[in-house]
Amino acid sequence: MKPAKFEYVAPATVDAAVEALRAANGEGKVLAGGQSLLPLLNFRMTRPAVLVDLNGIKDLSFIELRGDRVAIGALTRHREIEQSPLIGSKLPVMAAAMRYVAHLAIRNRGTIGGSLSHADPAAELPMLSLFYGASLLVQGPSGRRTVAAEDFFVDALTNCLEPEEIVVEIEFPILQHDGWAFEEVARRFGDFALASIAVSVRRRASTIEDVRVAVMGVADTPLRLKEVEAKLRDIAIDNQTPDRFSGLVTSCVSANGDLHASAEYRHHLLGRLARRAMQTALATKG
Amino acid sequence: MSVTVSVTVNGTKYDVSDVEPRLLLSDFLRETLGLTGTHVGCEHGVCGACTVLVNGDSVRSCLMLAVQANGAEITTVEGLGTPVALNTLQAEFREHHGLQCGFCTPGMLITGEDLLRKYPLATDDEIREGLSGNLCRCTGYQNIVAAIRAAAAKRAEAVT
Ligand SMILES: Cc1cc2nc3c(=O)[nH]c(=O)nc-3n(C[C@H](O)[C@H](O)[C@H](O)COP(=O)(O)OP(=O)(O)OC[C@H]3O[C@@H](n4cnc5c(N)ncnc54)[C@H](O)[C@@H]3O)c2cc1C
Ligand code: FES
Ligand code: FES
Q: Which residues of chain B lie closer than 8 angstroms to A103, CB-CB?
């Protein structure tokens, strides 16, 4: 229950961090908030030779408006996102989801870059990055590149990064919507979700102009359901819409069962959450 | 490899050389500094017993390396009050019988302090949500919630 030995480096710049990873020859690991990595180190489920601590890199922590996007530095803590007035006004679905991310003491340390990189299938920020269609700026030995969130999550706890690449920042397009909802059920508040859904709706009079929907906890990665989005476009809204939406969502995911909940239960739960989310999204303005 | 760690804990400055980078902050506090008020339960962030304040924010000391606390100000349960002069929250824990064996109590108190500072805690639901990351095997939580509710009421009185 204690980490094995490692070399510790705390570079002051991203360039130096990438160089430290390169010098570690595949044996290096990046440390951000440590809220997922430290448990793995304590259990010795991972034993890197070199730990590259990003916490000394000051310009990795910011939230800023860039035209029709909000950019968030990789080292920005969950708690800063939870409190940010800019996130509250421009990315309200994310703002609403943050209180579901673990517990205060973990939000005080955990970072958005770490959460995305860890790629837990039941974590809120990975799902929201798909929901918003975010793009990740990553830096490696051969420079910087941009990765779309939909290409980033490869499998449970697996992202598409090369071992020497670091997530630097994430850009979230601001969605235009008339209503939205975020719903989640976990066994205990702050635990990883059993199922969760984010929805936003743009309407033209009583017709759906556009829907965005992403779910998690029911597959090896979070999912954006483009199929469902396409089927609801230009549909007239009536009191059957939430049920219809729920049916579409459940028909295109097949949940996995585990220790915490059976596949049937998760599937059922997702349907209920979908209906509730659509009811809320159609009822609210904003 | 070893490093030097300089920290202020409960107002006292410590400079410790020869710290292995893999030493957890929880073990640094307990074993190196002898401050055994901070308890260690799970060592993977789940139980909350090891929670301390680092620069005013509650953190799991089992999920932080001692070397990462270099330059920081830390408050452990020993820094909240003394047996003869309990702080408000500690006094409410005593008043409401918010502990039995006491194992979870350091983490509950530190978490409570951070919650009181950051959230309105206007309802029991909000208090329970805030405490959801701290496990207690004895009390059934009712009296812990009652103690924090009372401390939140005292805080509201003091403000108005
Ligand atoms: C008890 C508990 C409950 C939790 N509940 C939830 C929950 O409900 N929802 C949720 O979303 N999360 C939850 N978490 C996880 C928490 O949100 C973590 O903070 C997060 O998943 C990882 O972020 P981190 O900054 O701590 O990353 P770290 O733990 O430091 O790193 C995680 C991984 O990402 C890599 N990494 C980190 N930063 C970068 C980067 N910039 N570029 C490339 N790779 C990087 C690391 O090498 C490591 O492999 C919980 C954690 C605990 C301990
Ligand atoms: S010992 Fe740190 S959270 Fe349990
Ligand atoms: S009082 Fe015994 S664990 Fe909480």
A: 48, 130, 132-134
